[in-house]
Amino acid sequence: MVLGVSGGIAAYKACEVLRRLTESGHRVRVIPTEAALRFVGAATFEALSGQPVETGVFADVEEVPHVRLGQEADLVVVAPATADLLARAAHGQANDLLTSTLLTARCPVLMVPAMHTEMWEHPATQDNVALLRSRGVVVAEPDSGRLTGADTGKGRLPDPAEIVDLARLLLAEPRALPRDLEGRRVVISAGGTREPLDPVRYLGNRSSGRQGYALARVAAHRGADVTLVAAHTADLADPAGVRVIRVGTAEELRSVMLAESDGADAVVMAAAVADFRPVSQVGHKIKKTDQDPEPLALTRNPDILAELVEARNADKLAASLIVGFAAETGDPTTSALEHGRAKLARKGCDLLVVNTVGDGQAFEVEDNSGWLLGGDGTEQPIPFGAKSRLAATLWDAVTRQLSQQ
Questions:
Q1: 43: Cα separation from own chain's centroid
Q2: Residue 275 assigned as binding residue
Q3: Where does 148-219 show beta strands of DSSP type E?
Q4: Which terminus of the chain has fewer Cβ atoms in its 10 Å neighbourhood, N or C?
Q5: Taking the C-alpha atoms of 306, 308, 312 and 313 in order, what is their torsion angle to the nearest 10 degrees?
Q6: Residue 285, annotated ligand binder?
């Protein structure tokens, strides 16, 4: 892999991107610009990568690095990509080793912008981004947040973990991030709900929210307007370019999902919703005594997925496509897939992702697998891989169905 680094204050975050890539087993050659080396020294990149660092085309001329590095790379990532670097790349300049490498690369190229809001929003930058995307370059959405000084706005470099996840996705599926969701609005739920017993304890589940966050991240980088309704998650960084609404209980999730889903092109219920909640919540911590505790009275939580489908079918909710998730285990008589088929029939959603859970599968891990079931009877196995790869598979199916409406 080639990791290009251009000259912005966010260059220091490239060190974390590099560390994560090398620890994942990738051989990474860092190509900074001269300006980048004013923020992070060459020695840092060399120590982390174990590879030499050069900026110009006249080092090791006998190896023709300005041609060879691009030809041999499986992926080129530029993080941060400044406004200047985007402009030079868009117009085919080759006045240093990084831009020369970009011209010779025939592998996927991922550019991750970072700059002040005014620079990102300038028509020149937007034209350069559009031109690069039209040529097949993946230009990621910048994040919003604190910039340099007291400035805040869109243009912040996404979290290094998100950059590495996108890189991993493009290595596995080079065409996983087309801009085919532009103009579409999607609503996604993620994480596990918690139902309080008292101020300390709750009923919940093992969902980390990683799959829902991967769905939101991939959708945003495919151009969608994304709202992520997040229940409790494993301290995940908000995906770049995504509006996040936080909830706690199943009732809170239901209320927000019904409100936000109206008018959406696609609604994805990836959250793990607690099936039951205590009939009553105690206002103080329940103390442990020598006596056995009283039996816990439970009541059912609302079936949010079924309610969304019912409201859509009754023309009370304007949502084009509704997708559900089913975390299943097999039992002595029925497989997880068969349970998923039965759930699809009960819920009536357009698509259902079935995951086998337990024994380190699906929950609290980075990877996932399963089946994608369609309301029309189609079934597609989803091979084991990163959760972002499953997300890309799902959005492929969603865009196909939306295009047929």
A1: 32
A2: yes
A3: 152-156, 185-190, 195-196, 202-203
A4: C
A5: 10
A6: yes
pLDDT for 235-265, tens place per residue?
Answer: 889 999 999 999 999 999 999 999 999 999 9
Is 302 flagged in the annotation as binding?
A: yes
The residue assigned the tokens 């670097």 is: 85
| Residues belonging to the chain | 405
Cα gap 222→281, rounded to integer Å: 43
Interior angle at CA 260, CA 257 and CA 262, nearest 5: 105
Going by C-alpha positions, the residue among 383, 11, 39, 16 that lies closest to residue 164 is 16
CB 202 within 8 A of CB 170: no
Question: At residue 195, does pLDDT exceed 80?
Answer: yes
The architecture that CATH gives domain 185-279+292-403 is: 3-Layer(aba) Sandwich (3.40)
Alpha-carbon distance of 359 to 378, in angstroms, equals 28
Domain map (residue ranges) of the chain: 2-172, 185-279+292-403
Say what angle helices 304-313 and 250-261 make with each other, to 10 degrees: 30
Span 2-172: which CATH code? 3.40.50.1950
Cβ partners under 8 Å of residue 296, min gap 6:
197, 278
Which residues participate in catalysis according to the annotation?
Answer: 205
Sheet holding 242-246, edge to edge: 242-246, 225-230, 185-190, 266-269, 321-328, 351-356, 367-374, 379-386
Could you report how far apart the first and last alpha carbons of the chain are, in Å?
40
Judge if 2-172 and 185-279+292-403 fold alike in CATH terms. Answer: yes
CA distance 220 to 240: 8
User: Residue for token digits 């499986």?
Assistant: 74
Predicted model pTM: 0.91
Q: For residue 304, say whether it is annotated as part of any ligand binding site.
A: yes
CA atoms within 13 A on the CB side of 302: 15
277 bridge partner residues: 299
